[in-house]
Write a structure and sequence with these properties.
Chain lengths: ~90, ~425, ~1000
Amino acid sequence: MASLITCPHCGVRPKEEFAIRGDASRARPEPLAPDDAWHDYVYVRANPRGRTFEHWHHIAGCRRFLVVERDTATHEVYSVVDAADFARRAEG
Amino acid sequence: MRYSAFSIVRNAFSGNLNWKPHWRQPQPKPHYDVIIVGGGGHGLSTAYYLAKEFGVKNVAVLEKGYLGSGNVGRNTTIVRSNYMLPGNEPFYEFSMKLWEGLEQDLNYNVMLSQRGVIMLYHSDSQRDAYVRRGNAMWMEGVAAELIEREQLKKMIPFLNYDHARYPILGGLLQRRAGTARHDAVAWGYARGADQHGVDIIEHCEVTGIRRENGIVTGVETTKGFIGCGKLALAAAGNSSRVGEMADLKLPLESHVLQAFVTEGLKPCIDHVIVYGGGHFYISQSDKGGLVFGAEIDGYSSYAQRGNLATAEHVMEEGVSMIPGLSRVRVLRAWGGVMDMSMDGSPIIDRTSIDNLYLNCGWCYGGFKATPASGYCFAHLIARNDTHPVARALRLDRFARGYAVDEAGAGPQPNLH
Amino acid sequence: MTGYRLSSGGLVDRSKSLSFTFDGRPLRGLAGDTLASALLANDQLLVGRSFKYHRPRGIVSAGPSEPNALVTIGTGPRSDANTKATVAELYGGLTARSQNRWPSLGFDIGAVNGALSPFLGAGFYYKTFMWPKQFWERVYEPFIRRAAGLGRAVLERDPETYEKSWAHCDLLVVGAGPAGLMAALTAARAGLRVIVADEDFRLGGSLLSTSETIDGAPASILADRVVAELQALGNVTLLSRTTVFGWYDDNVFGAVERVQKHVAEPSLKIASERVWRIVAKRALLATGAEERPLVFGGNDRPGVMMAGAMTTYAERYGVAAGKQVAIFTSGSAGYRTAHALAAKGISVAAIVDARAEAADQAPDGVRVIRSASIVDTKGRQRLRGIVVERSGFEELIACDALGMHGGWSPVVHLACQRGARPAWSEELKAFVAPDVGGGLRVIGAANGVYTLSGCFNDGAEKAAAIAADLGFSASRGASPAIDGETAPSFTALWYVPGAKSKAFVDFQNDVHAKDLGLALREGFGHVEHAKRYTTSGMATDQGKLSNINAVGILAGMRGVSPADVGTTTFRPFYTPVSFGALAGTARDEHATPARKSPLHGWAMKNGATFVEAGLWHRSAWFPRAGEKTWRDSVDREVLNVRANVGLCDVSTLGKIEVFGPDAAEFLNRLYCNPVLKLPVGKARYGLMLREDGFVFDDGTVSRLADEHFFLTTTTAMAGAVMAHMEYCAQALWPDLDVRFVSSTDQWAQLAIAGPKARAVLQHLVDEDISEGALPFLSARKVVLKTGVSARLFRISFSGELAFELAVPAGYGEAVADQIMEAGRPHDICAYGVEALNVLRLEKGLLTHAEFDGRVTPDDAGLGRMLSMQKTDFIGKRLSSRYGLTAADRMQLVGLKPVDADKDMRAGAHLLKEGTKPSTLNDQGWVSSAGFSPVLGHSIALAFLKSGRERYGEKVIVFDKLRDQEILAEVCDPVFVDPQNEKLKA
């Protein structure tokens, strides 16, 4: 992972084409959700040692946000999907 | 065993056979007043000050690996107190003052070298930001100097004055800042804590936190259950993992920061120099290696190793700042796992669970904070009261809207 | 034999003599030599001084593990410090200098440290130099710094060039020795894309230096044959002089090729070094094994070297390590060296074998002393004899070189760089590579296979398996027959007891066995602690020779197996890599790309001075004849805009086109102020927040059609805003039907500002642009008289009547020229970002000097923009937190100096009158300041606690950094034309 990412749109590309935004596992709360939900969304991270979902932005490629599923201990990548698909799947 | 000129001569003439271990290797007792999780710089300094300054001596430090195996042993050894925000500057200056007395206090030479830290600026707006910072330091009584280009040329002649992509216009200098020998800091605190009766237990991993009626009563470890009155977490890099054992949800991401050292060279870089056109910083160790680093790799990681692309970028910044580095060879790269917090500032606080205390979120600034972090954490643990210089570093600052955001980057950890 | 050069043999070219110098002394070597072999041939055994005790040191190895023979090669800005003579390829004109000695290599004052060694043991720093307190930094530390370090870095600009390259392959073979070559050949014949990388300048590895023969011929003949076949194949890339230094995620390898390190005058047209990033489907590690030194008294005397190195010098370079050579061994390879040397006519004084029994045969007439050890050595700058101890009796044996052999350690560095630790093999008495999965396999000696035939087979087999795995069919050729092959064996011997003088473990860092004992006594018995406390393995060789013995000694002292001690962590780089190679071309002006506005040429033409702003070069001011300082120009430009008209390039602002049925809804969620009902043809100031409620960026949003918006962002945040919008559209609200694209580079944007702006602009357009027809905050498409399609906005960042005209980038310069031409009768001037900054400062308009990431809209006096009636927008929810709405927050104010002659400056802090500086008393800070030519004095924008309630109060502007304290009056941040009368003129 740290070296190469397989972009679903562009293929295998080097890490330096991407900007990493961070944790993709949290969904943005409804506007009227409780304060705690908003606080957790903006500030709290599960920060797992192991499998995690992360937003990588292919800035020097297709400019799509991708959700990279990877292991924070081994750096193994399990999947890479488009962030819009990921978000729709989370809702659906 | 106290170190003195006498003890050194006496031992030299007896073949150095009579030196004693820096710290004992005790078996854990069934119960301690305070257990500190994490035998790194912060955990050890917390134990030291608890025992020495606050009279809490029935203390254990539990370390899952060897003592000092975390970030205290893999950083770029910079100590400084050149912060801008009122939530930070008094804390780091408190730390700086402790550094200045540390050798005498610990009877251990941590090789503090106040050689000066200079942060370069490359534009008028960057200069203005550094002036703001320098004046904030002066507000706290900390001397800072604005070094303009011509003066800088005399002071550090080998910078890229003629061909820099971002012109080197000057720098903000803190002369009292510098470096210290990182391992010695861990060993010195360990030895000091040990001499005050603290049990330092290496290779003892905490696997669970036992709670009864919502109150922490002890920890499960690879060496069995150990009871405690108070439990203090100082496991930066792995704070989320340890916190999880008590169902704490923390504003942290673990990230890897690479650092590098070159082959040993005769003295050539006399300051700690920070490049304003990127994040690059460099200094020379007393052994001669140039020690340097720059930005984090960017993704969350618990692996203590970095990637090549970031390493290359670090070198680019280095050569951009000091063209003459081009032929200097880099010997070794290593990676440290850090708690990156949501505002780039640390957390020293109680938690929602009684008797559970938290020290985390040091981002890549933990080393310089080692003395103050330990002192303030000990103060909090012993007195249940936040030390005045650590008041801004509370856990609830995010919920209350008082982030201490030195970079102004907002709640995205890899931007700090 | 001339000097130490044998009269025949070796792979050197005896017809090509090369001249070089060492410490100024002219010497000669042969093509094919390393610097080390040439020095040896010239009887220059003493090559350096050790790190701590400054002991004389000689060449120990014949490869990259060399701890002693470090020299500076080259002169001036082309100096390469700490270069290992053992891997430096000799070239005519090479200049080498020894290091870490003063005044000379032969006589080094620093050697006095040796006498002080009882005080300088492991960790001595930490116990001492503390008295008196001040002495550490003033006296002791400078002394330690000077004594330490090896070579000298010149820190001059490097005249040479560097580059990087990606490479992709099916199989990467690291190391071109017997296993690597056979693997490469097998894979290449099967059709795989193969890359072979080897650090040496000649491919063949141990085949080049072994005394064994293959089918009756020297092994090097076979190496040449295989290399020739590989070279002829189109699917093979052979990279000699290329060190694979790191193994990274996804089987990406970093390698550095020394393209021109072996030539006297490198061409500047090609790189001196090239970094490769090799993406390998599979890789085979054929890095061989490292021979172990023996830790015995006096083992650092020049002349003591690795037995295998002696063989290499004799076989490959035709150089004798000595004239009377002894061997100290705990394994059969020592005997092999004795045979090789004897066969070359070199006298072998004795073989000292630490083992009681061994089947190994010594060369005829060579004495073998079994169950014996060496306890001391004699000689000063070259070995003169060894003190051999057997059954309590000591004997001095005269010799001028000693080869030592303590067994083998597979080189598994790369395989352990990604977290896996090497595993102890009791069978091999060595740490071997961990199983790291199919991507990287280890072959040959690196895999603990120590016979040539075994290496050939191992390489061929594993390559064939990889080929099959990747869908190729590989057939194994017949393995070459090795003549009279025997498998080497050894007994692990970590420490030779009875040392009469220092027994070094780590030569370069002067760590001897007693240091490890001291470390253990002081509680530093963990291998990482021992390393850090003694510095064993921390020198430039990273303990390639020493680490295994340190582990063995620790194990012995602790009474455990080396398996329980384990190793320290293997990390990049396998051998050191230059900054220059890793940085490549990204340096100096090319460190980052430079962006130039479409109006850059126009600005140049008009004499602009440029300033770096992020990636951009922006026109800062336009000096005219007679103006002495930048302020003269800026004041003129400002006054001219206020009085007449000016033209400014604002093309660097981020520009984003937004389309779609949901564009309005999308933007309404993006900005904190309402956008939904923005009418077509209108522009609006917009403020974006971060989700935590602080200001992210500001700009304008214009509606050009019902489903077409046009946004501008600040120059600094253009990229970040675009990324933020993409995040929101893709990750947060993928179901909104909106598309957008950056058009920053597509439009040249020109601000025409000043009371005469309309008059000037009217020359370019037919349309009615009067206040009635095109009022403030209008946005529309226009066609210029020249036919150019353009966009025209009534927006102002100066407070003047102003227009921003956007034209396709290619027309920018022509349109700017037209405007200047049309403006001439109206006294138009070009103005730059400095004047722009003063103009906006006079009007209290904000930039990222104010929006520093910690500012809320209300702090900036823009609280009314927060549209809390909207259901949702980014940052809405968290902006109502207590800390963001507290009454004592710092608020934007203006400052006027009480004494009009005083210049306030940005970065100053604020104090109440009569208070002392302290963090508690700190009232705020100055975000922007400048001289207002309109008002004739300095003005500033500042953030002051509860500032809006404090207009009229006097505060101290505290700029201790410049030793300045100025009294200023707090005022409204709008200094000029507070009623905006000029704006709508």
